[in-house]
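User: Please check token order:
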Amino acid sequence: MPATPTRAWQILAQGNERFVSGTTLHPNQNAARRASLTGEQNPLAVIFGCSDSRLAAEIIFDVGLGDVFVVRTAGQVIDDAVLGSLEYSVDILNIPLIIVLGHDSCGAVTAAVDSYASGAMPPGFIRSLVERITPSVLAARQQGVTDVDGTVAEHTDQTVHRLVETSRSLADAVEDGRTAVLGLTYSLANGTVEVGAAVGDIDTRR
């Protein structure tokens, strides 16, 4: 498996290009691969993405079993479980790249944008999602961005920086060059990913 953030990104970018063009290889999805992973795992990246059913990480990057460590919450909001999972992936599994994966037309971000506009909070624990996304809505508004998709891109970038600012462990890993954090925004219509904010030593050229 790749030892650098740049090499990990290149593999994922190539897989996404195959997905977009309809030339997927579906690698590492057979019985032999399954058997080889019973003792250990060595993923090339951890993907922290939205829970949306249309955002299946292994599919859109054309990878298979054992290739990516996936953490998902609605609107890719951060909580203690997310931070613990990411710290485990970096400090224990030695994964060189964290991807923060947002997508257009995100329902959780839409709820936060609507809540900001109306001044009304949603009920139940959906409120918790909205509260965690609202700082990104405010950051987008400060830049004159009011639409949902523009806010999604800003929220993805904000999340990249927030991970490193919140977790001392992740910050140390980035500073030591052991990992990098990269934001991507996925298009539901055409399957492409757009590169956003990056923290750490990584070349995002394809």
About this structure: DSSP finds eight helices and five strands in the chain.
